[in-house]
Design a protein that fits this description.
The chain is of the alpha+beta class and about 260 residues long. It has helices at about 10-25, 40-45, 50-60, 80-110, 150-160, 160-170, 175-190, 235-250; strands spanning about 65-70, 75, 110-120, 125-130, 195, 200-210, 215-225. The chain has 8 helices and 7 strands.
Amino acid sequence: MAEGESEQPSTAREQDIQAVSRTAQILGLFAPETPELSVAEATKRLGLNRTTVHRYFSSMISSGLLERVDDSPLVRPGRAVLQLGSFALGQQRIMQLAPAYMRELALDIKVSTVLSLWGISGPVVSLVEEADHPTLVTVRVGSQLALNSSQAKVFLAFLPDQFHADRMTGSLPEPQRTETRNRIQAVREAGISSDVNHRGICILAAPVFAANGICATIAAVGTERMLPAALDSREALALKDACQRLTKEMGGTWPEDS
């Protein structure tokens, strides 16, 4: 056993935890001063035996976490890691840029505006700009939105992985599943979603795109009397315009511009 390497875990759960930990340790070796890595260098720095490190390298290459550098023995972070990093940076940037657009929109259309990011199982409310109006309709930051919400339909309409979107809507019972899928297709065509819930609250939602695809949605939320549900209303067009301008600043492309 190599110096620094612990005994093998005894249960499947412990093995899984160790595998995740070692994968993270290997990825943690990469830095601006270490953009590429060899098995020998990783073995030395982690204190594991060469066979173990080689096995992890092979598995991580197969899964896209690492990739070989041409025909050399060196590896570097793979597409899966770069995609995740790009996604994380995109989330940070949208949180910095969106508030100004949301405030401008809330002042213009006199209803609250809500930014949602995609979470593990659907949209999560991440920013709220409340309107200066005697009747205030708002949403709590951190709220997990349902798959049949206006914001979720926008995400599902434009997620790059449409197989994943289909799997998610496949978990809905009928006839809700068919209705939701039909609404998603309508959102894909219109570029915006409109819903009125059982309490008479209207939600208009539109996508914001970064270079690698949809990164957020912005919704306008108000009562039916405050916010028309029509997709060609002044409020809907103002929302769409704000999302298009934010998309441009995020380096993304609005679908109809493709």
